[in-house]
Design goal:
This protein is of the alpha/beta class. The protein is built from ten helices and eleven strands.
């Protein structure tokens, strides 16, 4: 049990436009079988703002909680932020919110980056009572050679950002437990030194040719089982009402996540993810914000966030919702 540590503020920045599956397939007809099997209905597309601008916008939504007590500003992403090759998102957030006393950290831990930041922040805040942490994730899959539909297998990538402030005291959700496991033996799954650095499929084909599908499947299930075992002692009977996972297709979720966390599928807002696309690092916090803002999540309920990212790492965070107004 983690004493007196909560999500104080939570905000998102999502584009209004959704590119429908029919529009996607009109441009990429060869992806029809993959995307239909995955179950995507649309993906969120940002036409104007960069990923960096989305990050700053999301951070503004939690500004009232990001005061001088913030000692860590962490930003996570998996794609170019569109603000210049040497632009540092963490220090930009630090400057935007006027937090000169904070330590800025920019994380590239794949799609698990924001939950790894969550884990790191919890550890730091436990050791430093009274301090706070600002965590932001953002991605926009445009402006490079990465194609949100064809660069990876069976995953549609969407744009968006989320921001959260962690600290002591009552808030939107109390932090019950956080745990991360890693398997660096999967590092080469995304290693592609070839001429097209954005061809994720080529890297995966090479890995599977060398190690076989079983290596990835076994590692994923072992990691998720380890997370499950860590969370079991913190779960309250009948209290776990929501399980938030990466916005992957139904086939990947059922094969990797729901096969380990039995009974999780009806607790997971899968349709929300399949309408937004995989947002990189922010899927779970965007879903959490949606549940809170819509009233679908109630005080006293437990919410389990599960993430996975290239490297490889997997993180689980168990929260208990509190009786406060909807997030900003």
């Amino acid at each position: 049990m983690i004493p007196d540590l909560s999500i104080l503020g939570l905000a998102t920045a999502l584009p209004a436009y959704r590119l429908s599956l029919d529009e996607v397939l009109a441009k990429h007809p060869n992806e029809a079988d993959r995307l239909r099997q995955a179950g995507y209905t649309s993906v969120a597309i940002e036409h104007q703002r960069t990923a960096g601008e989305l990050a700053l916008l999301a951070a503004q939504g939690v500004r009232r909680w990001a005061d001088e007590r913030v000692r860590w500003v962490m930003h996570a992403s998996i794609h170019d932020q569109g603000m210049g090759v040497f632009w540092n998102p963490a220090t930009a957030l630090q400057a935007e919110l006027g937090l000169p006393g904070a330590l800025p950290l920019a994380l590239r831990q794949g799609c698990d980056g924001l939950l790894v930041a969550f884990d790191l922040a919890v550890r730091q805040l436990q050791a430093n009572p009274g301090q706070r942490a600002l965590l932001v994730g953002s991605d926009r899959f445009a402006g490079t050679g990465f194609c949100r539909v064809t660069s990876d297998y069976g995953i549609g990538y969407g744009d968006g950002a989320a921001a959260v402030v962690l600290g002591q005291g009552p808030g939107l959700a109390r932090v019950v437990a956080v745990h991360t496991v890693t398997d660096p033996g999967l590092a080469s799954l995304h290693h592609n030194p070839g001429p097209d650095a954005f061809d994720v499929r080529a890297a995966k084909r090479q890995f599977l040719a060398e190690h076989g599908q079983h290596r990835l499947r076994n590692a994923t299930r072992a990691a998720l089982m380890a997370l499950k075992q860590q969370m079991v002692g913190h779960l309250r009977p009948q209290a776990l009402r929501h399980v938030l996972v990466p916005h992957l297709g139904r086939d990947l979720l059922r094969d990797n996540y729901f096969s380990v966390f039995e009974g999780a599928e009806p607790l997971c807002p899968v349709d929300l993810g399949l309408s937004l696309g995989h947002l990189g690092t922010t899927d779970q916090l965007v879903a959490l914000h949606h549940l809170m803002a819509s009233g679908a999540a109630k005080p006293g309920e437990q919410v389990l966030l599960i993430g996975a990212g290239a490297g490889f790492s997997w993180t689980a965070a168990l929260l208990e919702l509190q009786a406060l107004p909807s997030p900003g």
